[in-house]
Design goal:
transmembrane helix, 11 helices, membrane, mainly alpha, cell membrane
């Protein structure tokens, strides 16, 4: 690739990313049935609790990303925490663009500018996605299958859940994972994967454990936002709601054709929540969680961006202070 082409791509790729993000965010917001939110009586304390937990889950994801990068031998992370957190937040918003690859490609493109290896960024991104789906599905299956109300679902739905989980686990076996990536690289006629970039079993198990904890955090946030809308929800239903939210999240990640899992997440949520509350209320909760989740993503992007502004200002001040003062009379 010529230097001119690289220069053009450096300008075009970020512009295309932001334009596509703006377009699909507009379509996402336009698809909300705002009339269903008009008569809701909110418990704002539960909304606040849910928001804090959900924001914490997103920063937990940043920590997992750093963990995987370090385990894969990435360098250039020291002193780049603020910048890379902002990279993660920007790329996280890429989930609203159809195609799961956008989230991964965004991290590879933006983080490589901070000196992180593209190969390790790509492998860590794929590993993140598979781990998140597998861990979230595992939690969902445990919490839902122990609840007798789930037995009212069509048995094929349960079978599909289990098949999806087993498929993710098989893909995460290090040798299988490396084989799949190597095959993709050969098809794309890209250089083969270096041996030192391949994840170990310890990396996979460590990442899986961290993502299970993250799924509990995320599910707890959905429980409290549901409680904010439907205060009659019993405390004993917490595990079911966490399981329902986890299942909806995992299935929406598998539906790479839908921006932000739009339609898929809501369908799974409505189906499962209808087992623990009146269906009309479940449909309202689905709309609320859709709007609230987007708002938390926006808050995540903002809280990740603000430290970078201060960092730029501080670096500018330091650069100015190092200028040599002219001698008197000159």
């Amino acid at each position: 690739m010529s230097p001119t082409t690289k220069k053009v791509l450096r300008r075009v790729v970020p512009i295309a990313f932001y334009l596509l993000l703006a377009l699909f965010l507009f379509l996402y917001i336009r698809g909300v049935d705002w009339a269903q939110l008009a008569d809701i009586r909110w418990n704002w304390w539960w909304v606040a609790v849910a928001t804090v937990i959900s924001l914490g889950f997103r920063y937990w994801g940043v920590g997992i990303w750093f963990f995987l990068l370090r385990r894969l031998g990435a360098t250039g992370l020291q002193g780049s925490g603020v910048a890379l957190t902002f990279v993660y937040a920007k790329s996280w918003m890429g989930r609203y663009i159809p195609g799961a690859a956008t989230w991964i490609i965004g991290k590879v493109y933006f983080a490589s500018k901070h000196g992180v290896s593209r190969a390790r960024l790509g492998v860590s991104g794929l590993l993140e996605g598979a781990l998140q789906i597998a861990a979230t599905l595992a939690l969902a299956l445990v919490l839902l299958l122990i609840d007798p109300r789930t037995h009212n679902l069509d048995p094929w739905i349960i079978v599909l859940m289990i098949v999806a989980f087993v498929g993710c686990v098989v893909c995460l076996v290090p040798k299988v994972f490396v084989f799949l990536i190597s095959t993709a690289l050969r098809i794309l006629r890209r250089p083969p994967l270096d041996a030192d970039v391949a994840p170990s079993l310890g990396t996979v198990l460590g990442g899986a454990g961290l993502y299970v904890a993250g799924a509990v955090l995320s599910g707890a946030a959905y429980y409290f936002i549901t409680l904010a809308v439907y205060p009659s929800l019993a405390p004993t239903d917490a595990t079911f709601v966490i399981g329902a939210a986890s299942m909806a999240s995992a299935i929406s990640m598998l539906a790479v054709f839908a921006p932000g899992g739009l339609g898929v997440r809501e369908g799974v949520q409505a189906l499962l929540l209808g087992l623990v509350m009146p269906v009309p209320i479940a449909l309202v909760v689905v709309v609320v969680t859709r709007v609230w989740s987007l708002a938390v993503d926006g808050l995540f992007l903002l809280t990740a961006a603000v430290p970078t502004w201060f960092a730029h200002r501080r670096s500018g001040d330091e650069a100015g202070s190092t200028e040599v003062e002219p001698a008197p009379g000159h």
